[in-house]
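ENTRY TYPE: protein
CONTENTS: sequence, structure tokens:
***
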Amino acid sequence: MDRHTHEMSIPHTGRFHMNFSRLAALIAISMASMSSNANDDVIPVEKFQPAITVQFAPERPNGWELERPMAAYGMNLFSANVPSYDGKGKLISSWSPQLGKVFDRPTVILVHGGHGVSPANVDMAVWLRKELKANVLILDSYWSRGRTENWLAWTEYGANMRVLDLIAAARFTQSQGADPKKTFVIGGSQGGWTVLRAFSNHNLSSEVKSLLVGGASLYPNCYVKESIFGRSPSGTTDKQFAPPLGNYVAPVIAFTGTNDSATPLSQCNVEKVFKGVEKWTNFEGATHSWDSPSGGIGRPGVDGSCSNALNKYNQFPVCRNNKYTEIMRSDILTFIERHLPSAQ
């Protein structure tokens, strides 16, 4: 068979070469097309890197006292220390490593909601440092850009920008000695949206996976263009302001509430957004932010204590639920411990 093939090909060497070249070109085009299709979901860096204009944190954002409890619990105060994704300025963060054990301990990056860094973020950091002895970075995405909130959500300050900031923060923690194989992210509301978006399959997925193991998404925004809506709640029809979620490239756990009127499941493509995560818990009767630190940062919450959100477009109820907070935090601990290298 080999001899016959060889003899038949000799008189037609030129044609064989031409056909082979054409075949190779077609294969290359096909592979490029497949690659292009795989990366149709693109986070355009230039569009989602608003200028960094401020290099200090406000003293009392929204009237909250953050510095005193942070100092009391041995955390570093906020400073401009995280080089942005595009290298044009530094994001503000509180970076509190476990001195002498940075590489050995888990690292958790906390990303805030649409109201900016809040007592809830500091409370979560205090808990993580106590329970996990973790290195913890609380990342700011608004103060450094001269803003205090992004209540309209679907803007250039939304999920795509926040993913770029998260990557920048994970680069920073790695530069500080943290092990990417032990680095996780936790976010609530628009921060939870950030977690879902970060681990969705897009053009930056490889870098995300190289820097982060996985994440926990709490009461997230989860509107996606694949849903039944033709536009986002803010009115935009720009897909990049309400980007795709799902087809996760790393482990994610998610927590939602049936009485959440801030980020209701009715806005979600539930099948795609939540059925693909490692574990999804939907708490019966829970409002948005059921883990709000109603008793004060680092203190037991006042069960059933309710308040209204600061969001002037939607002053949704926020009610503390101690049982759901305990379950959620236990699941987060289990998730992190399960995905640490020593557990695999």
About this structure: The first helix runs from residue 2 to 9.
